[in-house]
Specification:
By secondary structure, the chain is an alpha/beta fold. The longest helix is centred in the N-terminal third of the chain and has 23 residues. The protein has a seven-stranded mixed beta sheet with strand order 3-2-1-6-8-10-9, sandwiched between helices. It has a three-stranded mixed beta sheet with strand order 4-5-7. The protein has a single domain, classed as Vaccinia Virus protein VP39 (Rossmann fold). Strand 2, helix 5 and strand 3 form a beta-alpha-beta unit. The structure holds S-adenosylmethionine (SAM).
Length: 229
């Protein structure tokens, strides 16, 4: 059943979050000087300002040494400037971002400002599909193994949940296996991936923002494997 009053309140909340996100990003003048012309030239950036601000502020608050992005774009620039700001305050931070299509890889290479060269590692890599408990996990083959504090899942392209519900963007499974510490992942839309994560990583705590179609996934530290003798 739909409740029009709550739908309207939800849309108002989304609008206010969007304005807030844009203002906060604008406050970083270096970032805004790059972001503003890109946003004006393009009708869609992929992420909304609210979502980009969530990623930006997460990096500044949690100070991850490594960030992994699957599917780069304008969001890469936003996270790159957050990493640059952290590095200026003495914290190591590197954004690793994975692309599988040469055309978009070359496009983004041209778009990335030279001042982000140290902060962003853009990698062109093929993807592969692996069967995991009845699901098909599509992953970037050549992603480097680090202890990632933040993962942003916006790729690779997979069939929609309606087309084939077995597919997920599966790189998070590798990070969950590699990491010794807890980490956070954000997901843009990708409802099939969200549902597959629920099934494959039962320890994950998932917060779904229906208005923005954005999920926050928290993966706790793996429990110690203590064997009694
Ligand atoms: C949704 S985009 C990533 C957007 C980025 N994370 C953002 O929010 O700014 C994910 C993938 O779509 C592909 N892509 C990029 N630009 C595209 C375009 N204009 N049309 C279709 N696919 C695109 C690329 O392969 C990219 O890795």
């Amino acid at each position: 059943m739909k409740y029009p009053k709550y739908e309207r309140l939800g849309r108002l909340r989304k609008y206010l979050q969007e304005v807030h996100g844009m203002r906060r990003l604008k406050a970083d003048r270096e970032l805004w000087a790059v972001l503003d012309p890109i946003c004006k030239a393009s009708s869609s950036t992929g992420c909304t300002f609210h979502e980009m601000y969530l990623l930006y502020s997460h990096i500044l608050r949690k100070k991850p040494a490594y960030v992994l992005e699957l599917g780069p774009g304008v969001s890469t620039i936003v996270m790159g400037y957050a990493a640059k700001k952290l590095r200026a305050s003495g914290h190591a931070c590197q954004v690793v971002t994975m692309e599988d299509i040469p055309f978009y890889y070359e496009d983004l290479k041209k778009l990335l400002p030279a001042e982000l060269n140290d902060c962003v590692q853009l990698i062109l890599s093929p993807t592969e599909d692996r069967e995991v408990n009845g699901f098909i996990a599509r992953r970037y083959v050549n992603k480097p193994q680090h202890e990632y504090g933040l993962v942003f899942i916006d790729g690779p392209e997979i069939p929609s949940q309606k087309e084939d519900p077995r597919y997920l963007d599966g790189d998070i499974l590798d990070v969950a296996e590699w990491n010794k510490k807890p980490f956070t992942a954000y997901l843009d839309c990708r409802i099939g991936t969200r549902d597959a994560i629920k099934a494959l990583l039962p320890q994950a705590v998932i917060h779904w923002d229906r208005q923005h179609m954005f999920s926050r996934v928290t993966i706790p530290a793996p429990s110690l494997d203590v064997h009694e003798t």
